[in-house]
Design a protein that fits this description.
- This is Cell division protein FtsA.
- Keywords: Cell cycle, Cell division, Cell membrane, Membrane.
- Self-interacts. Interacts with FtsZ.
- Helices cover 31% and strands 29% of the residues.
- By secondary structure, the chain is of the alpha/beta class.
- The protein has 3 domains: 206 residues, 2-Layer Sandwich (Nucleotidyltransferase, domain 5); 75 residues, Dna Ligase, domain 1 (2-Layer Sandwich), CATH 3.30.1490.110; 156 residues, Nucleotidyltransferase, domain 5.
- The chain is globular.
- A 6-stranded mixed beta sheet has the order 11-6-1-2-3-19, sandwiched between helices. A 5-stranded mixed beta sheet has the order 14-13-12-17-18, sandwiched between helices. It has a 4-stranded antiparallel beta sheet with strand order 7-10-8-9.
């Protein structure tokens, strides 16, 4: 399969730095669906977040339990659509707006990075906008492996003759003009079905973006992205990784192991219901083995319908012994994935943990020992009006979807064909059909 120049997923029109805009983000995860609506208002650059051209003010917020999702992928279209509709309706009511499109996150589909280098002839003339467009188009014409879709197409740096790592080539002179292009890819099927789920809710997918990328946009300070930092998003069904260097998103990876696997370990180890295991993890879960007392007991409901059966009692130390090995496994996999990238292999780079799994007490210290890097827990930065419940790492991806429009100008894409306005059931089917025809 040869990928068309405009890529396989919709690309967002960059927001004007001088205009306000209302944007909506939809984080359709394995355990929860989050919808956030915000107004982007032009602002002067901030000290910590210099690259943001707009302030973000939350207008509407909702989250609900996910349905029909497993490992970041749709497995039941009807259940997933119902959860999406519920989250969107609540957020729309709170914001007092009716949405036409949303920015959607993707955590499943085996996220990965592809790098391509291309160059064009300049004949000694100065680099102009047309030359940049030519070299970006040349890099984008590369083939991607069968069954993969392009989520992001980002120039890492330009080259003029022997000079490399050029950030702004306009007006410079040379004979050969090249670009180093980073493409983030995913399996095609999860992209198709996630888009179909949203379209069945009568919304257009404005853009589909990698979850760890937008989590990094929400939680990383500019200096961290400049010096080199990894954002590891510990979701329910997946763990995904984005690495930033020189202020650029340069590497992505992911695997289907997450916090839900910890819940299942608790349910099996304590012989309790999955819902009870999730509650026990949220209230008592920890990876701090040294502070756990064998005499500090918790009540665990047993599996079964007989309410007369007495509950069992287990120590917090026993709970830690169930949770910690799975978390260590996830962190060791993340460490190995980071080691495969020439950018992410820098051991002095900071790691920022996001996602619901990052809320376990003691996780930052454990991660620092396993990853052998400085580690902190990431929380959304620079969003006004964010509800208290959404200020933690579990909502980093949803918050980052509202920051992403300010970074959309960094991506290379060609304008999508003009869409015909359609209504009724045939509207979303026709739009999905058009996208599939254009993309494959």
């Amino acid at each position: 399969m040869t990928v068309l120049r405009f890529g396989l997923t919709p690309k967002m029109k960059p927001v004007s730095p001088r205009r306000s805009a209302v944007v909506a983000g939809l984080d359709l995860g394995t355990s929860k669906v989050v919808c956030m609506i915000a107004r982007l208002e032009p602002q002067a650059p901030q000290d910590v977040l210099r690259r943001r051209s707009h302030g973000v003010r939350i207008l509407g917020f909702s989250h609900t339990a996910a349905g029909g999702m497993k490992a970041g992928q749709v497995v039941d279209l009807i259940e997933a659509e119902e959860a999406v509709r519920q989250a969107i309706d609540t957020a729309e009511s709170m914001a007092g707006v009716q949405l036409e499109s949303v920015v959607v996150s993707l955590s499943g589909g085996r996220l990965g990075s592809e790098r391509f280098i291309a160059d064009v002839e300049l004949n000694g003339s100065a680099v102009a906008d047309g030359d940049i467009a030519r070299v970006l188009a040349a890099a984008s014409r590369h083939s991607v492996r069968d069954g993969r879709a392009i989520l992001h197409s980002l120039p890492i740096g330009y080259a003029l003759d022997a000079a490399k790592g050029i950030r702004e080539p306009r007006g410079m002179l040379g004979h050969r003009f090249g670009v180093d292009m980073h493409m983030v890819t995913s399996d095609v099927a999860p992209v198709r079905n996630l888009m179909l789920t949203v379209e069945r809710s009568h919304l257009e997918v404005e853009a589909m973006v990698a979850s760890p990328y937008v989590a990094g946009l929400a939680c990383l300070a500019d200096d961290e992205a400049d010096l080199g930092a990894a954002c590891i998003d510990l979701g329910s069904g997946t763990t995904s990784i984005a690495f930033f260097s020189g202020g650029r998103f340069v590497h992505a990876d992911g695997f289907a192991l997450g916090a839900h696997h910890v819940t299942m370990d608790i349910a099996r180890g304590l012989n309790t219901r999955i819902a009870s295991a999730e509650r026990i993890k949220a209230i008592y879960g920890s990876v701090l083995s040294g502070g756990s007392d064998e005499r500090d007991m918790i009540t665990v409901p047993t599996v079964g319908d007989d309410e007369r059966e007495p509950p069992q009692f287990v120590s917090r130390a026993s709970l830690v012994r169930i949770i910690k090995p799975r978390i260590e496994e996830i962190l060791e996999l993340a460490r190995d994935r980071l080691a495969t990238s020439p950018f992410a292999a820098e051991t002095r780079a900071r790691v920022v943990l996001t996602g619901g799994g990052a809320q376990l007490p003691g996780l930052a210290d454990l991660a620092s020992r396993i990853l052998r890097r400085p580690v902190r827990i990431g929380r959304p930065l620079g969003l006004a009006g964010l509800p208290e419940a959404a200020k933690g790492p579990a909502f980093a991806v949803a918050a980052g979807l509202l920051v992403y429009p300010q970074a959309a100008h960094l991506e290379h894409f060609e304008p999508r064909r003009t869409r015909q306005l359609m209504t009724g059931t045939g509207g979303y089917i026709s739009r999905v059909g058009q996208w599939l025809r254009e993309s494959f």
